[in-house]
Each structure stands twice: as structure tokens, then as C-alpha cells.
Amino acid sequence: MLSAIAHRAAFAGRRIAARSFATIGAQVPSVELHKNFPPEKITKQIPNYVDNQDALRAKGVQEVIILAVNDGAVMMNWAKSQRTALTMLTFLGDPLSEFTRATDLELTHPGPVSKLGPGRCKRFAMHVVDGVIEAVNVSEGEDGEDPAGDDDPSASLAEGIMATMK
């Protein structure tokens, strides 16, 4: 079940009306990092969920929450840049990493931390039904290979989380 602190941190002041939703953890690189990251690695997750909205709805998902360790202004601008206004995607920030830490999804590998900074969340997909976490998929390689899921984000893409849904 989502702990009270995790729920409060991620959804403060916002009541989640959706009975079934997917929460997606993502890294939002700073403007400086955009120069170093290929666009297809930055933007793959969001378009994938937009493209799979019908399939997600067929699985009973009512909302997809994009969560990142950033403030509301960053998340709002990211949503605008991805043109998600009329989609089932909602962008929420976890500025103090409270949800990220409470769910044990903090990215701690020194490679990504040296580029993104500490306290960032792993690339994940979480299926939640009536406040109960039904499934969590994390995109990260074995033995420290691809710790941020950049090379293979498939576990946290729409198809990855839908494959784990009952």
C-alpha cells in the first residue's frame, strides 16, 4: 500500500480521482545536460505513454502520473514541451525526493548521480489500484550496467508495465 508519507509527498494538495493509475518515474535533465543526452533518450518514455493511451485504458488505467524529482514549474514546462495537454498524462513533482525515498526508488549509482545530482528517482513504472501498488518495474541493467535505464528503458515503458498488469 502507498505509505502516508509517499502519498503526501507526491500528491500533496491533489486528490487522485482515478481508481487505477500508473506512476512513471523519470529523470528530467537540466538544460546543460540536454547537450550531452541524445533526444531519443530524453523523450522516449513520454511519447510511448501518449501513443499507448488506448491500450492503457483497455487495461483499466485512468491516469498516468509522470513523477520526477523536480518542482512544479519544471514539471509544468516539461509537460508543455511534450505537448501532453489533452492526454491522460499528469506531471507531478517530488521536489524533496520524499516519495522517491519512501518507495526505495532513489537512483544511487555514482555514474548517473555525478551527472544528475543526488536524490533523483530511478526510471520506473508503477501500477496502483485503489492505493495499492500492484506492480513496479524498474529500468536498470544488471551489475551496474545501464543503472539509469538509458540503453534499455523497456521495463518502464507502457508495454512493460502493461505486461505485468493482471
Low-confidence stretches: 1-18, 27-39
Supply the number of helical segments.
Answer: 9
Shape: globular
Radius of gyration: 15 Å
Distance between the termini: 17 Å
Q: Share of helix among residues?
A: 25-40%
Order of helices and strands: HEHHHHEHEHHEEH
Please give the number of β-strands.
5
Nearest-integer average pLDDT: 75
Describe the overall structure.
The protein is α/β, with parallel strands linked by helices and 166 residues long. The protein is 36% helix and 18% strand. It contains nine helices and five strands; from the N terminus they run H-E-H-H-H-H-E-H-E-H-H-E-E-H. The protein has helices at 4-11, 31-34, 39-43, 45-51, 53-58, 72-81, 98-102, 110-116, 158-164; strands at 20-25, 63-68, 89-93, 124-129, 132-138. The chain has a five-stranded mixed sheet.
List keywords for this structure.
single chain, 166 residues, alpha/beta, five-stranded mixed beta sheet, 9 helices, 5 strands, 18% strand, disordered N terminus
Summary of the model, kept short:
This protein is α/β, with parallel strands linked by helices and 166 residues long. The chain has helices at 4-11, 31-34, 39-43, 45-51, 53-58, 72-81, 98-102, 110-116, 158-164; strands spanning 20-25, 63-68, 89-93, 124-129, 132-138. A five-stranded mixed β-sheet has the order 3-2-1-4-5.
